[in-house]
Amino acid sequence: MNLRLGVNVDHVATLRQARGGHEPEPVTAALLAQGAGAHGITVHLRGDRRHIQERDLRLLKEVLAVPLNVECAATPEALEAVLPVKPTWVTLVPESREELTTQGGLDAIFLQGMLKPVVRELRSAGIRVSLFVDPVLDQVKMAAKLEADAVELNTGTYSELPMDADATLEIGRLRDAARLASRLGLRVLAGHGLSPQNVGPVCAIPEIEELNIGHSLIGRAVLVGLERAIQEMVQAMGEFRA
Ligand code: PXP
User: How distant, in Å, are the alpha carbons of 113, 158, 171 from that of 161?
Assistant: First the structure.
């Protein structure tokens, strides 16, 4: 199975918001990413609107040819903003105002009562739903029970390992979770903290269909341009899987 790259352009909007003006434009970045070979575009509409704004969602939906994936918390406020846009995917993530970035996966077991109607409402609006969960078998089982279409496995713990650490255990957790998710009929994505340097062992997990990558790509793009940053990432991914 081919491995797709979803490019997260949140941090283009982070830079824009730093001055409160119009530049750099995340919609332009998304179009450039699409032109450079991204298979999808991801944005996170945070409750505090620190980067992506509702206007970005509307424009992205209008101009993109590749699927738009909107990450958001499972709150009434987020749903009210996202539902009318009808992105291809919504990825439900945990969110707290203090965090610098998403910390850990959703506890789908603890939150099942709250998640169930949210998943149902999104799916009945024709939106595919992914749950961002840690690579824990019971969380994957709950995602299937909640009738999500996909899980995005959190690679954060793996990515935070020092480069010279033994990653066998973390890769094993991701592999087992991916295998179970696929057996349960879920589509399998992964992301958080991935870079050309650490992406290889994740790409080698055959059930994973797509990686969502933001920070390392946009950080690299500032230095060498978005097109080259995406090409480098696609090349690193391709060394492990076509
Ligand atoms: N997947 C999810 C659910 C995320 O919240 C994020 C961060 O916004 C990513 C993937 C991308 O992580 P990174 O920016 O570290 O590549």
Answer: 33, 6, 11
